[in-house]
Amino acid sequence: MAKNKKMEPLEGEELVQKVKDLGDLSKEEKAKACGYCTFTKNGVERVNMMKFLNALIDAKGIELDITSNGNGRGGRTASYRISVQSNGNLLIGSAYTKQMNLQPGDEFEITLGRKHIQLKQVDAEEILEAS
């Protein structure tokens, strides 16, 4: 490929077939041959391995984000179970607070039952009246 010439990256079945045809070449060489490289202002070639590998995964139909929560970030998913920590605290993780769109400073009233805890969000108006 000529220097600074932009080749449109291959996708789908065309990408899969090209990778198969390239046989024993290295990953970087395959990525370049499939159009997954760019040139900097100084003419230095850069291979876009992540774009290449992601395109290959998509072309193969492999679903990695099965339970995507829509916020675009990885992390733990909510298990809806917690346990008492060694210091006696119960920690409700960020997976739950994000799901409920809670913000730092939101307040709750705690009601204890025999084997349950109920949280009732305190409205901003109630906080102002109590002050």
Automatic annotation (TrEMBL):
Gene Ontology annotations for the cellular component aspect, listed alphabetically: protein-DNA complex
Domain SpoVT-AbrB residue range list: 79-124
This protein's record includes keyword Ion transport: no
Regions annotated as coiled coil: none
Pfam families (alphabetical): AbrB-like
GO molecular function terms attached to this record: DNA-binding transcription repressor activity; transcription cis-regulatory region binding
InterPro entries documented for this protein: AbrB-like, SpoVT-AbrB_dom
Alphabetized UniProt keyword annotations: DNA-binding
Membrane spanning stretches: none
PANTHER family reported in the protein's UniProt record: SLL0359 PROTEIN (PTHR42182:SF1)
Name assigned to this protein: AbrB family transcriptional regulator
